[in-house]
Amino acid sequence: MKKVVDAANGLRERKKARTREAIIDAALDLFESKGFDATTIDDIAAAAEVSPRTFFRYFESKLDVVMARNAPKEPTIGPLLAARPASEGPIEAMRQVMREELVAQVADPAHVRELQVVITTPSLRNLAREHFYEEEAEIASAFAARLGADEHDLAPYVIAGAVASAIWTVVDRWIADGAEPDHLEPMIDEAFALLASGLEPPAAAKPRRLRQPAAGSRSGGAVGTPVT
Question: Which residues contact 66 (CB under 8 A, 6 or more apart)?
C-alpha cells in the first residue's frame, strides 16, 4: 500500500512541476514578444492552458514568475566568500565566487531568458538593481573579516561598493552583447583584473604633463607644448 501511495505522490509532484514549468515558459514567451508590462496574468494562463486560479496556486504575481530562477538561493554571498581560502584578498575571493556562481547559473537557458527580461524591462531592472545592492552590507562584512578589519571601517564598504558595481556592469554588458555563455567568464576576469589593478586599464595611455609657463611670460603656444 505504501508503494502505491508513494507512486501516486510522485506522479502528483511531477505533474505539478510540469505545470509550473509550462506557466514559466508561456510567461517568458509573452514577456519577450509583448513585453512584461503589457502581459497580463490572464494572457499567461491562457497561453499555458491553465485557469487564472491555477496560476495563483503556483505564483503570486508576474514578478514571481520572472524571478522563478533568479530569486536568491542559499547559501548567500557571505558564506561563499567565507569559504574561500584565507590567502585570497577580497577582490580575488569575490572573483572566484562570481566565476562559480554566475557561470553555473547561466548554464540554464531558462535562467538566462528570465535575466534578459529583468535587465531589459525598466521597472524590473530598477527593482533588481535595488535588491542587488542590498547585498553590499553582507559583502562588506565578509570583506572586513577577510581583511581583519572592523566591519564598520570604511575600506570594506568602499571595496564592496566597487565590486558590486563591477558585477552589475558585467551582467548588464553581457546581456546587451547577446548573453553568450562562454563570454561571461572572460568578462568577469577582465572586470576584476581592472579592480585589482586600482582601476587603471593596463593599456590606457597616461596624459602627458604640460609645461608650465615661465614667470612673467605671456600665454601662448609654449604654454600648451608637451614636455619632451
Answer: 27, 28, 31, 36, 114, 117, 118, 124
pLDDT of 198 reads 81
Question: What does the pLDDT look like over 67-111, one tens digit per residue?
Answer: 876 655 555 788 899 899 999 999 999 999 999 988 888 888 888
Domain layout of the chain by residue ranges: 2-66, 77-196
First to last CA, the chain: 92
Pick the CATH number of 77-196 from 1.10.357.10, 3.40.50.1970, 3.10.120.10, 1.10.3720.10: 1.10.357.10
Read off the C-alpha cell for 7.
Answer: 507512486
Peptide bond into 52 cis (omega under 30): no
Phi, psi of 212 (to 5 degrees): -80, 145
pTM of the model: 0.72
Which architecture, in CATH terms, is 2-66? Orthogonal Bundle (1.10)
Angstrom distance (rounded) from CA 183 to CA 29? 24
